[in-house]
Amino acid sequence: MKKPRTRRSLSFPKLGSLTSEFTRRVGKGICFFLCSCLLLTLPAPAQTLAHIRESKTLRCGINAETPEYSTTDDHGPRQAFDADVCRAVAVAILGPDARVAVTQLPDDVAAMEALRTGAVDLLPTLTLDMSHSAHTDFTFSPPVLYDGVGFMVPLSARVTQARQLSGKKICFLAETEVEVALRAWFAQQHLKFVAFPFQEEGEMEAAFVTGNCAALAGDRTRLASTRLAFGPLATRYTLLPGQIAADPLAAASRAGDPAFASIVRWTLEGLLLAEAYGLTRQNIAAARTNPDPTVRILTGQTREIGARLGLDDGWPVRVIAAVGNYGEIYERDLGAQSALKLPRAQNRLTAQGGLMFPLPLK
């Protein structure tokens, strides 16, 4: 609320007052000028696509997810998966010789700042929840990777489902979103929660491998990464099926650039559709003879997929030839063909019992 104006008697300012006022005004002017120059150096949202084409490079922000850095992020590092998503988008825009410049970022906070200030063009996997998306700074794709809180247990314990952990010690990092999810789930399931919290990840892992807790809790990507770090002991542990809390990840770009956001979204949809229709890196060239309408669109045999995105009609062929379909990317970077051996679970196509549903091309 504005304060009511009061009457002032006429008076003439002293010379010192005039000098102070002049200094203040000049200072404000310099500040405004410098801020304006800074803003001019940052890429405007609607210029993202033009900048990528001019530089022939897509700037990709990859989140290294260091657990000690933040109490809100517990995803495992997924550099290979993120790099392939960025590579797919870059190839769609620039062709097979596209360049991707990678910037490593420690957590979601740093990643969002890098995207907001124009240091990167795309965050291939950013947590998609209300705290990240309930503002106008970013545009999100549908989920590209479903993560969430789960459990890792020793194979020797013969535990096959999370409910069997009632009354058993659970190791986790204290004061994190994982702890919130654990307490909520055990209460909802009317199970006994025996907490064994830690402030330091190394101490927690040591307690787990020495048998001081029955299970290790965390996001499934983090658990897979932790198991890999066990080296020769990794084969003694398994991830329980399912998860007790959802933590989906989506590709994020700056708001105000719908052309670039559409390319990001439909590149990802193209990867899912390619898997649904059996198109792979190996057979994409030969698939041009397939009469199926969707395959014809994906292989550039029609004029229905390029003009709407400001691309040529052959972009899906180039993308699939470069990185494969979604299933190939997942298995190579996170799944059975990778060192992480993370079960695909919810990241299967809906036709296979998962949550990944490719939108139709029509």
Short description:
The protein is of the alpha/beta class and 362 residues long.
Please describe what this structure looks like.
By secondary structure, the protein is of the alpha/beta class. It has a domain of 99 residues: Periplasmic binding protein-like II (D-Maltodextrin-Binding Protein, domain 2). It is built from 12 helices and 9 strands. The strands form 2 sheets. Strands 3, 4, 5, 6, 7, 8 and 9 form a 7-stranded mixed sheet that branches. Strands 1-2 form a two-stranded parallel ribbon.
How do the strands and helices of this protein lay out in sequence?
Blueprint: H1 15-41, H2 48-55, E1 57-63, H3 79-94, E2 99-105, H4 108-116, E3 123-127, H5 130-133, E4 138-154, E5 169-173, H6 177-188, E6 194-198, H7 201-209, E7 215-219, H8 220-229, E8 237-239, E9 245-254, H9 258-276, H10 293-298, H11 315-323, H12 326-333
Parallel strand pairs: 1-2, 5-6, 5-7
Antiparallel strand pairs: 3-9, 4-7, 4-8, 4-9
Helix pairs in contact: 3-9, 3-11, 3-12
Protein traits:
single chain, 362 residues, alpha/beta, D-Maltodextrin-Binding Protein, domain 2, 7-stranded mixed sheet, two-stranded parallel ribbon, 12 helices, disordered N terminus
In terms of per-residue confidence, which ranges show pLDDT below 50 for 5 or more consecutive residues? 1-43, 67-72
Overall 3D shape: globular
So what's the CATH class of the domain at 148-246? Alpha Beta
* Strand fraction: 15-25%
- Give the SSE string: HHEHEHEHEEHEHEHEEHHHH
Report, as a whole number of angstroms, the end-to-end distance: 53 Å
- Could you say which structural class the secondary elements and strand pairing correspond to? alpha/beta
Quaternary arrangement of the chains shown? single chain
Mean of residue pLDDT values: 86
Instruction: Give the number of DSSP strands.
Output: 9
Sheet with the most strands, sense and barrel status:
7 strands, mixed
- Second-tier CATH architecture of the domain at 148-246: 3-Layer(aba) Sandwich
The residue fraction in helices comes out at 25-40%
- Please report the number of helical segments: 12
CATH topology of the domain at 148-246, by name, is D-Maltodextrin-Binding Protein, domain 2
Radius of gyration: 26 Å
CATH homology group of the domain at 148-246: Periplasmic binding protein-like II
